[in-house]
Amino acid sequence: KGNIIKAGTTSPYSLYNESIASFTTGDLYDHHDAEGFINLFGLSSKVRAMKHQELEKTEN
């Protein structure tokens, strides 16, 4: 019995690009693109809050 720990892998088909991995350098990633994702990701919370307010109004 024993363990194997992989030290690394390389491939000519890899999509990993070290120059854009951090999203802080280069022109490929625009931080403004994240705004749409954030708005969409938070949409369910907004809808829930609106529904909660509607229910409170009908109960009072």
- Residues in helices, as a percent range: 40-55%
Integer-rounded radius of gyration = 23 Å
Termini separation:
68 Å
Please give the domain count.
1
Q: Return the structural class.
A: mainly alpha
Main sheet makeup: none
Regions with pLDDT < 50 over 5+ consecutive residues?
none
Please report the number of helical segments. Answer: 2
Number of strands: 0
Task: Give me the oligomer status.
Answer: single chain
Q: Which geometry do the CA atoms define?
A: elongated
Q: Give the rounded overall mean pLDDT.
A: 85
Strand content: under 5%
Q: What are the secondary-structure elements, in order, as H or E?
A: HH
List the helices and strands and how they pair.
Blueprint: H1 33-41, H2 43-59
Condensed summary:
The protein is mostly helical. The chain has two helices and no strands. It has one domain (18-59).
Kindly describe this structure.
- This protein is mainly alpha-helical and 60 residues long.
- The chain has one domain.
- It has helices at residues 33-41, 43-59.
- The longest helix is centred in the last third of the chain and has 17 residues, at 43-59.
- It is elongated.
- Pfam families: Arginosuc_syn_C.
- InterPro entries: Arginosuc_syn_C, AS_cat/multimer_dom_body.
- It comes from Candidatus Eisenbergiella stercorigallinarum.
